[in-house]
C-alpha cells in the first residue's frame, strides 16, 4: 500500500506497509537495500534492488505520477528536486540475478511485541531481537568476486528485510499475553500459561510473510535469521528456498560466553545519557543494549527445552550450559 524511507540508527531503510486478504491487520516489511539509491557497481559486483511488485504495479489507468510517488513508487532518492517515478510492473518479477560471489539476502520474520519493543519488558528479548536483526542485515557483506576488473570491492552494503507480522504474543493477542504473564508469575512457563488460557503454545502463521517475500522477489534463496525450526519448516512449506539458517544468539549470552559471539555482532555506536550512563544506539526502547535477568533466562530456557529452538543454553555458569 505504501513505502517510505526510514533513517535508522543502523542506516537507511524502506518501510513497506501491506494490506492482505487473510486478516485486517497491516503487516510491514523493513527493507535494507542501498541499491535503491545507487547505480550498479562498475566493478561488476552488485546486487539487484529489492522492490515490491504490487507497489510498482499499475493501480489505476488514471493514476498520476504524483499518485505513484505519494505511495512510494519511485526510484533513487526522493526530494523536492528529484522525483523519478518507477516503471509500472505488469507481472510479478522473477528474482533478479546477483553478481558472482554475492551472498543471498538476510531475512528476519519478526512478530510484533508491544511489551518487549515499546516498554522494554525484560520478560522476553523481542525488542533486542528486532534491533539486532536490523543491525545485522545492515552490516557490510563480504563478497568473493569472480570479476577480473581491477578494484573489485571486498564487501557490498548489507541487504535484506525484516518482515514484521502483527501477531502479538505468538498469535494469542495482547490481552491473553498479559493474562499469561500473571500465570507465569504463579510459576507456570510461557507454554503452559498459553495452554491454560485455551490457546496453542504458538498460534502464529507465516503465509502472509511468505506472500510479502514473494512480492519483494525474496522467495528464491535467502538466509533466514532465526532459532525456530518451526519457522524454517513453515516457510519452506510456503515455497521459500532457505539456503542458510543464521542463529539469533541473545546479546547477554554472547557477553557471558565469547564462544557464542557472532561475527559482526558487537555494537559500536556508544553515547552517554544525562546521568553519564553509556547507551548503545538502536531501533527499539532496548536499543543496542542487551536484555538480561531471571525472567528472560526462564523464557529462553522454555523456548529451547519445550519449543525446540536451536540455541545452546547459557545461563549463569558454564556448568549450566546444555
Automatic annotation (TrEMBL):
Q: Which reaction does it catalyse?
A: GTP + 4 H2O = 2,5-diamino-6-hydroxy-4-(5-phosphoribosylamino)-pyrimidine + formate + 2 phosphate + 3 H(+)
Kind of enzyme, top EC level?
hydrolase
InterPro entries per record? GTP_cyclohydro_II, RibA, RibA-like_sf
Residues covered by the GTP cyclohydrolase II domain: 104-247
What pathway is this protein said to act in by its record? Cofactor biosynthesis; riboflavin biosynthesis
Q: Name one GO molecular function term.
A: GTP cyclohydrolase II activity
Q: Name one GO biological process term.
A: riboflavin biosynthetic process
UniProt keyword terms in alphabetical order:
GTP-binding, Hydrolase, Nucleotide-binding, Riboflavin biosynthesis
Q: What Enzyme Commission number(s) appear in the record? A: 3.5.4.25
PANTHER family cross-referenced by the UniProt entry: GTP CYCLOHYDROLASE II-RELATED, GTP CYCLOHYDROLASE-2
Give the protein family.
Answer: Belongs to the GTP cyclohydrolase II family.
Name of the protein this chain belongs to? GTP cyclohydrolase II
Report the source organism.
Mycena alexandri
